[in-house]
Design brief:
The structure is a single chain. The protein has about 120 residues and is mainly β. It has 1 helix and 10 strands, in the order E-E-E-E-E-H-E-E-E-E-E. A 5-stranded antiparallel β-sheet has the order 1-4-10-7-6, with no helix packed on it. The protein starts with 8 loop residues before the first strand and ends with a strand.
């Protein structure tokens, strides 16, 4: 499966997705239920300030291969499993990647924060 390993990450914000089904009754009470037991997560990735040509090429190759529809395995940069290997999550891009080229530096790019949603 696809992944990105060269692309440097500054910060990962992890949140749980609220999947509860909510319905409001006429009396104003809200009934809730969980459709299934798996708690999915979203990871908001904040890249380092400047990325090199190789790093952006790797990220864009992954983006072009999977877009927002195909899942891929992502290695969390700081979480480890019981054997010391990076913890893996099956995710997909939540929205398109946005980036810009730094006009003052040749072959350097700034990538905006993007979100990976667990599937």
């Amino acid at each position: 499966m696809a992944n990105f390993s060269l692309f440097k990450i500054k910060k990962v914000k992890q949140t749980e997705i609220d999947l509860a089904i909510k319905s409001e009754s006429a009396s104003g009470l809200v009934k809730t239920r969980v459709p299934y037991t798996k708690i999915r997560k979203e990871f908001t990735i904040t890249p380092i300030e400047v990325s090199t040509q190789e790093e952006i090429d790797e990220l864009l190759a992954l983006w072009n291969a999977v877009r927002t529809t195909s899942p891929f395995v992502w290695n969390h940069p700081t979480q480890k499993d019981q054997y010391g290997n990076p913890k893996q999550f099956t995710v997909r891009f939540k929205e398109p990647i946005q980036y810009e080229q730094d006009a003052s530096l040749h072959n350097y790019y700034t990538v905006d924060t993007f979100t990976l949603s667990e599937v």
